Amino acid sequence: MKKAFLLAALSTAAVLAHAQDDEIHVTGKVTDSRSGKGIKAAVRYSSIPTGSIFGRFNDSTFQFSIYGTAKYQITASADGYNARTVIVDPKDKDANRQLSRDISLTPKGQTITLSHLIFAQGKSVIDPKSFSELDEVAQMMKENTKMEVQLEGHTDNVGSSKANLELSQDRVDAVKKYLVEKGIAKGRVQTKAFGGSQPLSNELTPEARAANRRVEMRILKD
Question: Which CATH superfamily is domain 112-221 in?
């Protein structure tokens, strides 16, 4: 009896130790995209794809633990702001098994810049480094099945205006195609091309030109 009890205790201790070894601490904060200040928001997290592990917070910060190799989605929403979903991957943990991911919310009515979207120079080929951000957009639209968006393409204002307009259209079409391939209905994604007609800056520096080359997302319906 004592031997059986000892073996059971050792087994339980081993399981707990293994769980601690697998534990990853996720932390983050929700901020206003303009000011960078914290926003009290409704935050939901769940495992992907089943959603069998989930939790909620109502604060400007969040903290929870994840285990194993499953990815998790985190969605933050607040009055007057567009909701946003991000995805955390256990592979991105640091040496201390910490994973930090902040969520920046954009006020309703404003476009959301897909800031990590990269294309091959002068082309509409999406760089694989951009896939994680587009996957977050797809996940957000899957979670909110009524959401409709408009992708708005911009280039810098150097060169042929006709060529720039065509390039900006090709790029938003490429993003739409990616989202559709991820399971989003075509009718929920509109596109609009502006070429170089709406620059963020008229400076001719490489930094300004890079900032002008962008795809923005406008939420039409949520």
Answer: OmpA-like domain (3.30.1330.60)
